[in-house]
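Hi R.,

Here are the chain sequences for the assembly we discussed:
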Amino acid sequence: MNGTGKQPQRPPAPVGIFKPEAIRDIAEGMGISTLPEGVASALASDVEYRIHQIVEEAVRFMRHARRTTLTTGDIDQALRVLNIEPLYGHTSHSHPPFRRANVMVPGQAAVYFVEDTEIDFDKVLHEEKVFLPKPVSWKAHWLAVEGVQPMIPENPPQARNEAGKTASPAPAATTRTTKTGTAANKKQAARHVLSRELQLYYNRLTASLLPQGSDSTKRAAALASLRNDAGLQALLPYLVRWVGERVVHALKTNPGADADGKVLEIMLEVLAALLDNPALFVEPYLHQMLPPVLSALLTASLPQERSSKLRKTAAQIVSRLLTAHSTTYPSLSPRLTKTLLVALLAQGKTSGTREGAVRGLTGIGKEAVRMGLISAGGLQLLSSEPPDSPVVSAVLDALRALYPPGTTPQPPPLTAADAMLLRQTCGDAVANALLRDTEWASGVAAQIREPDDQPSGSLASSGALESTQAALTMLENMDMEAVAASMGVDVPDDFEMVDSMDATMEQVA
Amino acid sequence: MSVTPGSSNTPSASSPIDLSQDDQFSKEDTMVLEYLRKRGLKQAEQELREQLAAAGPSTDSKATTVSTAELVKKNAPAIPRSATDRSNSLADPNISKDAISVVVSPLLGTQMGSLGLANLMNAVGGVEDALATGPTDRHDGFRDLEAWVDGSLDMYRPEFRPILFPIFCHFYLDLVEQGLKDAALDFFRTFSPSLATHHLPTLRHLQSLSIPSHVGQDELARRFRNEKYLLRMSRSGFRLLVGWLTEGTGGEAAGAGDGFTGESSRRGRSAVMQVVNNHVTVEVLPSTGSTANAAVNWEENTGLVSALIPDGSGRESAPGVSAPQAFNSIRKDLRLGLPAMEDNLRDEVERTLREESMLNGEAVNPGGRYDPNSLPRPFAPPPNGHPAPTSSEQLPMPPQFKTVDVRREVEKIRDARKRIRLDPAGYSAEADLNGLDRTGMVRARALPSICAYTFHDANDGIACSTFSQDTSILAAGFSESYIRLWNIKGEKLKGMKNEFQLSSIKDSNSLKRVRERGGNTTRKLIGHSGPVYSLSFDPLTGSAAPPKHLLSASADATVRLWSLDTMTNLVAYRGHQNPVWDVEWSPMGIYFATASRDRTARLWSTDRSTALRIYAGHQSDVDCVRFHPNALYLATGSSDNTCRLWDVQKGSCVRVFLGHQGAITSMAMTGDGRYLASAGEDLAINLWDLGSGRRVKKMTGHTGLIHSLAFSAESTLLVSGSADWTVRCWDVKAPGGLPTKRGAQDDIAMVDGFGLASRRVPATADAGALPTGGLNDGPAEQNTETTDLLATFPTKRTPIINVQFTPRNLCLVSGSVASGTGDNR
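And here is the predicted structure of the full complex:
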């Protein structure tokens, strides 16, 4: 009685691959309708154990056949050595295509079945040629020659080559030529095919982005897709190139026209969206993304009504890009600063360019603003601007970044000396705006007076105009090689970046 | 019919047969009895009744089908055979008090007189202990043990860590045997992840055992039950363990509430103690030695080794020979030296060489004189510190040498002259110390040139392949039961015409006439009826000429000898009962050895159709077989995770190599006859010193099964080909070990082989989701490359199934392109 009392206490549903329900189903299929719970459970466990046994045996056959996939042949062999009749009719070469049938009964598990393909006899009989499968053949190649793996198509590309890791790259500065050589190789190796779907997507996307192509809702959808879709990595180089081309086209053909301004705006939005997309790995393409942004920022003439907005957007993009990627590319921010400083300080630049430069510096950060406006004498250069010029508002924005405007309602009065200094350096337009908020003004004046306490004081010198010249010469002499070497990676690419930036600027100018 | 746990096994519970007698007989019998009674044939009825009763209630002589009730009974929890047998006294907690009294009362009766009260109390206490250990106690006990091991001093942890595994296995088996399937599964799921890094295959197997009858049937479970699990511990460590087991001292449970003082933990400890007492042998070492050393050696001295160690022959067959080292040391020294060339043959070879150098001496050697000392390798083989065998000890060979022998030896010397020297010594060390780019010169000196032969359109069909020694023929064995030969040099492989009279062949011209006309550079050899798993070209011609014969081993349990002259099958050697996994010619030809699933290796000679020697002793399949270069010894690798070295003549096992954690997949012997390299399913390559039987080092880094190993001719470089699509080169002489750059903590984990490494298993990996993609997706994949790995050469999706060195040290590898798109790495 003890035992029967225990029976219900036994685990009703043991865990395993084979469930007692399956056993009961099979039993019902064989006409045994009353199979006790304990028997079903024990049978399920036993079946599982037997299958383990067979598979374990089959794995040995697999291992000795030096394969890593278990085939039906292995199972057959295992059954044979275990003295069980093998299952005939299954071959390794035709994987049974199990199909899932949707069962409409709720609560019922899915049912899988093997589909029988229909063979059209007429077709088979009238088929002209039956090709024999290709016979096994071999091909020899050098996997390694004296311990070095040759770069031939038969060997896997270097990227996956762990042996390449051991041959550590020599210092970058000395082997520029070889590096460009490998870069060329890399480009050759990276040739790949864009899938049809992506091509279609690309065409649709570019068409809907352009202003003549579609309305604003479609465009918003396209931008949202760029911002969020994860599968765009393969398209990224194409998109970046397309943006670059459109920007150059817009700036070259008719810089003043409103339509082109619109194009520029959209292009900047596209870039911003690409940078926003968390799934994209944009770092390899930064050097291609920067020229369009800088061009929009620094170009001499933009459509009047859009100019300010465009430059602001571009500056924002620069700022975002730097916050995200300056850790990977430590030299990115100095380079950008340099480009912008040149645009700000060089002779004969239009006020538009200078406005852009100031906005760009604001985007880079406080240090850059101090360097450009105060140490290098940018303020003085811009002091003659008329008060309603956009340059003035840009400068004021920059100064806001440099020193936050006052918040106290009763600010301490500005000393006369400071007011004088401000007027001298900033010019009347800016100074007037500054003097309305005395706390801000005194803060800015303090910054102007003591440029030496800043970390980048090496660039500072006393005389404003001399400092401009000094800064420029210093920038010219800045040892790009050393900077590049410190980065260690992508030297040719970065040079390309600088070159292309310069080229764009020349075009624009 | 009630299934009372006590009634099935306990002898005292005698179920009265007479009462339920008729119920126990089958229907037919009852009818017969009824009939006899009706007729009044009392005597006949009585006799039949007695006979039936004697045959037993569950007599299968008539009813062959097992009723469902029987099945239930069979799978009902197994109950201790007797209470005094504490080895298996793992009683069901649900057993009633009556049962206890039943069990105890005979004790009272039998032991009262002789043993006295104290013993009685002990016995009763033992019974109580046994009854008290329920599933939760095992759970708690194991948890406490693990906490104690992890909380022990760093110094002892590597010693203690191995104890977890046998305790785990026995607890699991206990639970299964008691029919507590859910508890067993729960136990498995909770504790297996921390053990999975090192014991994955065993764990997988254990997981499949889930009903009591399996425990009795399964081979692994039986081994666990019947054999002692060997552990090694220092004296102080063992004392600590005993202290914990008895008093619960010395460890602190991490957040375990009442810790070790509670009643439940005491019961848990007693459960652990039972296993330790009954199934574990602790070998106490006099001193701890260096812990690092102990940590490295755990895999050589831990496990169910007793069955793996052959019985010591004669004098010391005592069970004291439990460790492989002990076994290896009591076997006398081996004659591992290489035999010198026969005098006559050497004279002939010298003469040939002299003539040759005279002929083209002007061109090659300005001195114009043959100077034997100028040879890079003199005729005498290099001494390796072991005594060389005398000719009487060697396998009997034909008394006279032939032309082909001279040609082979001459070619051998020529090869030695032209050999590319590979000397990786200093290669890796230099690079590590100086951080310098390795110069081409050094690399060229250290690393071989590798030529890869890639098979296309084989669809996973190629099970093995090999190159002939003169690199003229490439052979591949297929799963589709045939062998295909290719002539690499592009010459035609010609057989003989179908009908010809042997008597018509008198000279080379008439022989040429019976050769096939056309021919192809490839040829199929058909004869086997199962996948061909191994091929071996005969070494008789050496590198001087194409080989004449080929041996093939197949799943159809035969080995076949093929003539490459006629391209036909000459002999089928039958004898193995099961698939033959491996075949290799002896270094001098004529003899060959096979390894089979029937757990034996056999020695054959080509002219006899039965085996000359059978080498039995492995506990599982013999997976591979390799001859020692002097043909006196034979190495076998088996699925019981050991390699053995056999005396070819005597047929006795002379060395056991323990240390792999998986089946052996491949082996190689050095040319100087001192070392054996073996690769296992644990993805490690072990290097063994044959003389002492010790492990020299362990090389890891592969991420897939290692299909093939080969030493360079100087034995300085080892090349391995693997299913992870790489060929790797290893420095044989370097000390090896894992890199120490990754921080001390990490390093300890790897050196322990246990403690911290096991914690890297993600906590989410429960038992149901043990990694199923194979052994190679372990979590510790990133940091397994030992420092003696010189280079890794990846291929394009080609698992390498064969690596080989030519006599001139060019490395040849072959494999067929993986057909599927799935990345199996």
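DSSP finds 23 helices and three strands in chain A. Confidence is low (pLDDT under 50) at residues 1-14, 159-190, 453-465, 477-509 of chain A.

Let me know if anything looks off.

Best,
T.
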